[in-house]
Amino acid sequence: MAEDEEIILADLPDDELVLQMQDDLYDGMKEEIEEGVNILLERGWQPYDILTKALVAGMTVVGHDFRDGILFVPEVLLAANAMKGGMFILKPLLIETGAPRMGKMVIGTVKGDIHDIGKNLVAMMMEGAGFEVIDLGINNAVEKYMAALESEKPDILGMSALLTTTMPYMKVVIDTLVAEGKRDDYIVLVGGAPLNEEFGKAIGADAYCRDAAVTVETAKAFIARKHNQMTAG
Ligand code: B12
Q: What CATH number did the domain enclosing 196 receive?
């Protein structure tokens, strides 16, 4: 196809459309991403598959080239904006599953960190699975988490960090919970690209979750265990 020839997204077969959407995400083309999402929905694709195969996969490529110095912050911001355009369309579809109420989660990105795409995705998937989610947004100091736990009384506290410099802040929050004798009142789940299971254990979280789907499964398992303990006790 000639360089200047316009690509008609709706004419592409599914596999080519998905690859084109990954390219468009890379190039920060929000409108094209929205159009692609709508086309795949019309073709009967599941919202979760669109999210993972087109959007998250596209963002992974962006991540690699950002790491390798091929892309810079302005371009990554555009890609993030395009991703959010797609997520905005998918959000109500992921949430309206009619799942029974599972529990409540307070979630936020830690102090010094403004990455929120992964956190938003976790929040969306948790809502879709029937959890009530209170989203504290980005750059949360320990006081903000403590105040929300006090007022919302959730079952789960979720913390997100995408930087090696901000992930230790999760321990500040957990240590504060311990110092105030509240650690056992909450299931603490942590996540973000630089974390791993070992880190989660080291800071005293209940679990590290590598992605939104694992978060939902882990949260359900912990809630079930909590209910069993309550009925046994
Ligand atoms: C998009 C992006 C940005 C955007 C953020 C836009 C936004 N609104 O979020 C912008 C351009 C603003 C940005 C800025 C910066 N970024 Co940045 N960014 C990224 C990038 C490319 C993608 C992150 C992303 O959205 N991924 C997609 C989502 C879906 O994945 P995820 O976040 O990992 O989330 C999943 C899981 O981790 C998990 N999860 C996430 N949160 C939670 C929470 C809970 C409770 C649970 C259970 C699970 C969970 O589930 C999610 C869904 O499946 C990453 C690359 C990467 N490999 O991660 C770099 C990256 C994180 N950024 C990096 C850097 C260095 C920066 C800057 C310092 C750059 C600079 N020089 O200014 C600034 C820091 C700003 C700040 N103070 O926070 C580095 C971090 C390196 C390090 N080791 O610390 C990375 C790894 C890129 C790199 N390799 O160099 N960035």
A: 3.40.50.280
